[in-house]
Amino acid sequence: MLIKNSEILSVGTEILLGEIVNTDAAFIAGRLALLGVSHYYQAAVGDNCGRLTEHIRAALERCDLLVLTGGLGPTYDDITKETAAAVMGRKLVPDEKAMSTLRGYFSGRGRAMSPANEKQAYFPEGAEIFYNDHGTAPGCAILDEERGKMIVMLPGPPRELTPMWLDKVEPYLRRFTGSMLVSMNIGVCGMGESDVETVLHDIMVAASDPTVAPYCGEGDVRIRVTARCNTPEEGREKCRGMTEQIYETDVGPFIYGVDESLEEAAVRLMREKGLHISAAESCTGGLLTKRLTDVSGSSAVLEYSAVTYTERAKTAFLGVPPELFAEKTVYSPECAEAMARGIMAASGADIGVGITGIAGPDGGTEEVPVGTVFVAAVRGGRVIQRALRLRGTRQHIRYLSTNHALMMVIEAARG
Predict the structure, then answer these.
(1) Residue 143: CB partners within 8 Å, gap ≥ 6?
(2) What's the rounded Cα separation, in Å, for the pair 342 and 278?
């Protein structure tokens, strides 16, 4: 059997009520794409046997592979296995390994296993079982080779589903897929999506394998380079050639990394160069520092930063002279530079960053509206400055400000 197309059906009334965000479907869709499996439909259905049966039957009329998420728990409304087995004409039978694992799970926590949990060790006859290393609900796959149909059932919690998919389901599915897709994502900051598309238009039109497509990230742009291949190594090699070509275009100076976030790229580059950074933040309230410290290994480049929200704090901790506020105001490139130099002097860092501005929604004026942010990055005698006019919510303005700051850090680190 060769799997050509797929659907995802998420089971759970809590999804329909908006009580949880269905991140499972997004994750699985991305992984199916990498397997080279087409994906045309997604749906969510509540914990109702009749409606679930109807959706499963309809999906199997359209697709080779149906992925069901959720509804594998021990309660009465966890009906995914029972319903899917009935549709496929299979009876449920116990699996001794799953039963033993369940008993061990509860015993190891000093609890007795309830009879309700036993249903989690029953599976459609002939199913491939995916044992759960992170919870009590195993997943499984039912294959009907005669009809050319497969149903994969997975637990709903992402902390259980994600490792089960990567470690067990995906290797199993590779037996039934042909070529695969491998992608590289080039990160661009400082150019809009339309500008990137204009520069890369001829490359995108001419490219067929690998393909090239830009899309908006959260305050940046990603260029996805995707190759069809038989092995991951072959795919990466094809993508690398196209990536090198894109670096040579006018987009190149705005590229911060491949398959990494802005903060990961900044920390990686500073570690490679042996550089240290400190930041003095006002309107971003420590967000830049948080993003840096979210990256493993950031302790090698960051000793400390400071949130200096008021003029008094900027003077007391950073040595910004009070007369600068009177002459240039706190919302000025001069203030951002003075903050950067002050934190450098205090910390001994190689790179200092200063951020000051108005994130809103209050505090703006006609002369200095909400979204006005000044960022300075200093390394030695070099000063990189940006005056930003940003729009959006308070949270978005703060996030975009740190995006620009991180790109300036990368520029300063490159020298």
Answers:
(1) 1, 126, 128, 149, 150
(2) 10
By the 8 A CB rule, do 178 and 2 touch?
A: yes
Tokens of 196: 């990137």
Q: Hey, what domains does the chain have and what are their CATH numbers? A: 5-176 (3.40.980.10), 180-258 (3.30.70.2860), 263-414 (3.90.950.20)
The answer to whether residues 308 and 339 touch, using CB atoms and an 8 Å cutoff, is: yes
In three-state secondary structure terms, 178 is coil
Residue 23 identity (one-letter amino acid): T
Q: 162-179 burial, b if ≥16 CB within 10 A, otherwise e? A: bebbeebbeeebeebbee
Lowest-pLDDT choice from 227-241, 307-321, 341-355? 227-241
Q: In this structure, what DSSP letter does residue 302 have?
A: B
Average pLDDT over every residue of 36-42: 93
E strands of 193-260, at which residues?
Answer: 211-216, 221-229, 255-258
The C-alpha atoms of residue 72 and residue 131 are separated, in whole angstroms, by 12
Q: Is the Cβ–Cβ distance between 305 and 322 less than 8 Å? A: no
Report the alpha-carbon angle 251-254-260, nearest 5.
110
Task: Note the helical H segments in 297-393.
Answer: 311-318, 322-328, 333-347
Token pair of 114 as six digits = 């309830």
3 state SS of 185: strand
Q: What's the token pair of residue 116?
A: 């309700």
Residue 359, phi then psi, degrees to nearest 5: -90, -15
What's the pLDDT tens digit per position in 162-213? 999 999 999 999 999 988 889 999 999 888 899 999 999 999 999 999 999 9
CA pair distance 83, 80, nearest whole angstrom: 5
> By mean pLDDT, which of 28-37, 43-52, 146-155 is the weakest?
28-37
